Structure formats: C-alpha cells, structure tokens
Amino acid sequence: MKPLPRWADNILLPLLNVTLAFLIGGLIVAAVGQNPLQAVGIMLYGAFGYGNGLGYTLYYTTDFVFAGLAVSFAYHAGLFNIGPEGQAYFGGLGVIFVALGLNGVPWYLVAPLMVIAGAAFSAFWAFIPGILQAKRGSHIVITTILFNFIATLLVGYIIDYMLRPPGSDTDSSAPILAATRIPQLRTFIPYFGHSPVNLTVFLAVIALVLVYWLIWHTKFGFSMRALGQNPVAANYAGISNQKMIMLVMIISGALAGMVAVNNVGGVQGRLIINFVNGAGFVGVAVAFMGKAHPIGVALSALLFGALYQGGSELAFSMPGVTKEMILTIQAMVILFTGAMGDMLRLPLQSLFARFEKAR
Amino acid sequence: MANQPDQSHAQRPSGAAASPIAIELIGINKHFGPVHANKDIHLVVKRGTVHGIVGENGAGKSTLMSILYGFYIADSGQILVNGQQQSITDSRHALALGIGMVHQHFMLVDNFTVLENIVLGAEDSPLLDRTLAHARTQLTELARDYELEVDPDALIENLSVGQQQRVEILKALFRGADTLILDEPTGVLTPAEADHLFRILKKLRAEGKTIILITHKLREIMAITDEVSVMRQGAMVKTLITAQTSPPELAELMVGRRVLLRVEKGPAHPGEVMLEVEHLVVTDDFKIPRVKDISFSVRAGEIVGIAGVAGNGQSELLESISGMRDQQSGVIRLNGTPLSLEGDDGAARARDAGLAHVPEDRLRMGLISSFQEWENSILGYHNRYGRGLGLDIDKAKQDAQAYVAKFDIRPPTIDLKTANFSGGNQQKIVLAREMERDPLVLVVGQPTRGVDIGAIEFIHNQIIKMRDAGKAILLVSVELDEIRSLSDRILVLFDGKIVGEADPATSTEGELGLLMAGVHAGNVPAAGPGTLPAHETPVEKTLVERGPNEQSIKDSQP
What we know:
Shape of chain A: globular
Number of helices of chain A: 14
Strand order of the largest sheet of chain B: 6-7-8-3-9-10
CATH class of the domain at 62-306 in chain A: Mainly Alpha
Largest sheet of chain B: 6 strands, mixed
Strand content of chain B: 15-25%
Helix content of chain A: over 70%
Largest interface: A-B, 24 and 35 residues
Distance between the termini of chain A: 18 Å
CATH architecture of the largest domain in chain B: 3-Layer(aba) Sandwich
Radius of gyration of chain A: 21 Å
Oligomer: heterodimer
Number of strands of chain A: 0
Distance between the termini of chain B: 31 Å
Largest sheet of chain A: none
Number of helices of chain B: 19
Shape of chain B: globular
Number of domains of chain B: 2
Number of strands of chain B: 20
Structural class of chain B: alpha/beta
C-alpha cells in the first residue's frame, strides 16, 4: 500500500495516537466517577494556564529534551542507548564537584564548568558501554541498562558516605550557595511564580539545534548515519565502526549529563539521591515518539512535560484521581505513541487510498 | 473495479489451438499506487512446453507470475487454468490447481533434511513418521522419473546451490504441480549446474509438464524454450516461437531500441604496473583461509579478469584489496607503494591512495538504500566535502547532479531515496561515484549482477573507457561471458588459488570452465563442456565439501 504523505505520517498519526491515549485515559477517569472533560481542562490549565504551571512544564521539558536527544543521537548510529538515567545520575557527580569546589564564585563563571564537568562525567559513564560494544561486542542495550543500576548504587554510596555533610540526616550533598547556582527564570520574570525552570532551558534549545546540525550537516553525522543504516556499507566507505561507536556514545552521554546540570546546578542546588527520577527513561519514550528528530524530540518532550505537570495538578485538585491513575494515563501515551505507534497506520493508509480514488 | 477486462484476444499466438492450453491470462491489470505494473496482459501457455518470459527488471514479469501464483490479486482480468476460469487467492490455491513456483531465493529450512523440507506444510498425518515414509517412496519415484537425484537425508545446508534448487523443484512436484514457474533459476548456478537444470527441465517437458521460465538471459531462452513472451514496462510486447527469433530481436523488443550484445573494444596498451599483489593470504570471518597465497599484478590500461565459481575466494580477495578486510600476510602495492590497510577504516586509506572499488554486492555494501541519491554519490568520499566538521552539502549535490547527467541515472532526482532506483541505476550511482574520482586502480566486483541489458551495455562501455584512459582495472565476475568479453587477461581462481591464466582471445569457454572447476587442462584430454560427468560435476563436489551457505547468501540479491 502507498505510504502516508509526510504531514500525515509526522503530525496526523502521532496526534491520533495521543488522542486515543487520552480517550482511554478518559474512560479510566470516568470509571472512577469523575468527569473526564473536566480532568482534561484541569490538566491543560495546570500545564500551560498560569506562570507557575508553565514553569514546571518547561522544567520537566528541559530534562526530557536532553534525555530524548541522548537517545535519539545514538539511535542514528544504530545504537540503542537506554542508559541516560544512569549517565545523568553519574554526571551529577561532576556538577556537584565543580560547584562545591567553587562554591560562592558567581554562577556565570561556574555554570560553563558545571556543563563541562557534567558532560564529561556522563560521557565517561556512556563511554564504558561504548568501548565494550566496539571492542568486545557486548550489546549496548544490555550494558547501558546494567550501568543504570551500577550508577544508582555507586552514586548513592558516594553521596551517603562521602558527600553527605557530617551531622546531616538527608541523603544529599552539601548545598551549593545561591550565588553559584544557575539562576531560575523567576528571578528575571516573576510570572513564573515559584517554578524551578532555569537558564538550562536555553541550553536545551541550543542542544536541539546543535544535534540537528551534527546529524545532518557534518561529516561526522554523515558517517554516523551511514553506520546506523548499514554497517557493512560504512566499512566499505572506510568509516571506522569502533571509533564511531565510542565517539557517538560519548556525545550521547554528554547530552544526558545536561539533565544533571538542570537539576543539581539549577534546581535542587545539591546532589540528592535519585535526583534523575525517571527522566532518563522518559527520554527513551520521547526519542521514539519524536522519531529521533530534534523537532520531534522538542514536541514530544513538551507533551511529556505537560503530562507530568498537568498530571500532578490533576492529582492535587481532583482527589478521586489518584497519582497511580495519572501514571496510567502517562503510560497510555507511551503505549500508544511508542509501542503501538503504527497501529493506526494501515487503517489510515487505506482511508487515504479510498479518498484518493474517490477524487 | 475501474477497468473491465478487455475481452479481445488480440495477442493470442497463432496455432494455439493445436495443443491444449495449460494457462491462459486474459486482460490482467495490476496497479501498485501510481505504478501500472501489469497493463492488460494476455498470455497463452501451451501444455507440455517451456515458455520463456523475458523483460528488463521492473518490466512486470514477477508481478504477473505472482498473480498467477496467488501472491497478488489482479485488479482486473481473468485466469484460465486448463480452460477453467479460476480466481486464485493464495499460493495454496494455486498449488491445488497444479501450479508450483520455484523462487529465486529458496524457501528452504537450512537445518532440515531434504525430506523434511519437502513435506513441510504438506504433512498428511499428525504423525511425522508416516508422512516421511510416504514421502520417501514418492521422492524416489520423482527422482528416478526426472533425473532429480538428491539424498533425501542430507541437510539442506550441506547441499550445493544447484542441489537446493532441485529440492525446490521436487517440493513443487511432490505437491502435484503440472505447471512449474521458475523465477531467474540460473542466477545462482554455475554453468555446469545450469546445464544440468536445463536437462531436468527438458525431461519434465517430455513427461508432459508445463514450464514457465522467467529470465533475462537470452542465451537460456534460446537454449531451452519453445515459445517466448517479451514484456516491457508492464506490457506484453510480443509472443514469439523461439525457433523463429534471435537474441538481437529479443533484446530489441525488451529494451525498445537496438542493443549491442557484444562489447566493442580495441587492443589494450598496458603501461606501468599499478596494482601488485604478492603472496596474499586472507581468511573469512571464521578464520578459514579463503585466499591462499595469491600473487598477480595489473598494469595501467589493462583489464585483468578474475574468473571462478562464486565462493572460491573472490569476495575475500576484493575485500582485502579494497581495505575492508584485514589480510593475514602478503603485500598489496599501489603504484609501487605498499598499502597498509589494517583496521576497520582501511577502505578510507585505500581510497586516499587512489584505489576505487565497485563492490560485488551493491545493496549490502556499496549503497545505503535509505539515503538520498546525493548522499550515496559521496559515500566513502564524504570527508573530501567541506573543511572542518561541516559537510559541504551544496558541493556534494552539485557533484551528484553532474554524475546523474553523465551516467544517465534515472530518474535524475538526487533527493530521491536510493531504494527507489532500479538495480541498473543503483549500479550506475556506484560506478559514477567510483569512476569519477580519477583513481589509479579500479577494482570491480560483479558489475552487472541484476542489471538490465540496456544498462549492461552502458556499464561495459564505461569500464572499457576507464581502461582506455589508462586506469588499471581488476574485474571479478562469476559471469564467464562478461569476463571473456571485457578482460585483456584472465586469471582463474579456484579454492583460493590462481590455477591458471588465459588469453580471452584464444581460450574457449570449455577450457575456462574446467579450470574454474579445479580440473587442470593437462589432466583431461579433450576438454569441452560436454565432458563433465552428468550428475556430479567437480564443481558441485567441491561446493558440497566447502558448504555453500555463505555463497548462497552472497549470491542472492533482490
């Protein structure tokens, strides 16, 4: 059958999938005796309707953009990096070391160093699976998953036994002083209320553009895509499989490290146990829904950001809708846009074919 | 349905009434989106004949046969089997009507025995033993009747390609096929195996079976068919009695213009040695030596052809010279300088030294089918576009546009996905990319595999042109005709060694065939194709010993 036109493939199909997910979510809400339309209204208002909500949405979106880009970037080289969660967590170490080492120095001097250190630490954490894949053929999916666990335990240990200030009973490092923290947007724009969105959100925009340029407008990106699409042809073209795998994983990891910059340097101001809180895994869904394209990643990151923020707003103002149900709705979106993303393709194609014939 | 079948039997060949008709197609139409793959096709296949269907790639041959075999359903038109109108909905239905198909890519389970493969899907009882016993008797009968000997207990993976094909034929016969459709059956066979296949087909015809042979090799059409139908661009051009036609006429009907079947070339003027290979040893992925201490050289301005049955070390030789595969020992010199090609980016260094490579399997190696045309036209040379990190896309597109014009690549749309080009045009994309970099040495593997007649002519001429421009050319091909007509010198590769050198002007196909089979000319007195033993040629024997799996994979191509 004839493939769908591009606009239908890239816009209509995802839109239908999201709508379907919300319909099913609506049924769940209705099943507990609540009004689904009202719930949608609350979610939309909570995510975009006022400054504080919008700020939270953008804060989540920032995380998801970085994690989504990390997955997308590696995906173009044929590598399925499922480890942004652990990579970001490990990157947190780099950020906190720099920030605490230079505690009190003005943020505009420290922030670039936090970015570099976060990138370097996360890149290192991604590089190990990379080199194992390149030199030993260990499957990157397996190793990156396992490295998530190692990061959880290792960083947890470092926080608890090395970074926790004496006498403190919280699972976190010492705080970064206010002058050194990356400023939040509310300090310039009061509209954002008390929301955590900070200057890192602009870094996310830069990263989107940079990744786009890297993939489609550089020799490196050309080689990387060649490798991802056809490794034998890449070998024929003289592209070093091993070097590319390691380089791509380093860059992918560095992107994941920006999640740490956003949270450790910009929001929490210290290294807290499990600060990544699933953002790395959401990145996988974001990358797939966004078809590994920066524009798609930006849009789906925004959708997930809105779901997160709107969801917690919903749980707050509709007591009948529990947190678990909101998780279910989020899972529906992942299910319908990711795993079952092609479910409506065939019906849509035959619909288009019929429409064309009728004309 | 938009089109009603056209009832006028305009193209029914004369004399159709003389013998009963096995298959008749009337007014078959099939669309794939905007592509009109079959345009009002009429075809009459007489019982007990071998009916050839020729046409270029994309002419609609396979679509038509798929409709007959129930894989596709026609948009309009009728199918008559033994004079009865049928609507064939799936291949099971086709089989029930006695129509069997031998696919180009075998549908066999590698780690099953011959017998198990034959009963697969046709088990007549839940207990396998009874089915197998029953099948064994039938198989013995079939094998005796049609000279289709294969060991029923051999594993498929241990059989040569020719033997696997026999199993496919047996499978169809076991299911009661009277009409056999063979899709490009000789594409993967050695000349001797092809001869054997034709003997089998003649035997089948003598027993009253009907055979439809799809091919683009005119020699085969002339050798075995009774009638031949020519297709071009989805339409049935003409059906002819084979005895009353000639290859040039068929080629012209296929392409729609006159085609030169012979390569015109002047004498070579060899210059300096450009490519020198000394004591080269190369192993395959399993560390088994495939190239065993080979030495040869290629001079500027000459074409050296490497002949041999597929799987005798050609792939490994090509891959090691072009830097894709590490060599175990030996030296490769380019214009006097030894090349160091170790590591997984050796191909880049080979290119930098001036060695261009047209790989034998363009879809697997030479192209990235999901890339746009312009991206493939810089693949391997992409680091020459733009300074620093950036890729100079404008320059790349400019070059791609120039190649498209010079090599007449169609459609001339450089933004089109490469997968959407035909085989011949894909090969032109590769050739243009490799030839237009002004290399010192051009290494070419299977330049015309799966390529249309019209494009073959063009590709051959381009290779000759490169030679006349003073390039050293190493040509590897399993098509003996191609090697003989293009090469200035022929080296025969057998079991990883060069077993002989021949002058294309004086050597016969028979002599080369024996060398390719590992029989040295001295051992056999009157050498000629007819002297090969009937059922187990030396070629097949060696193939069996080596296990031809990888060969069958490499040889298959869409």
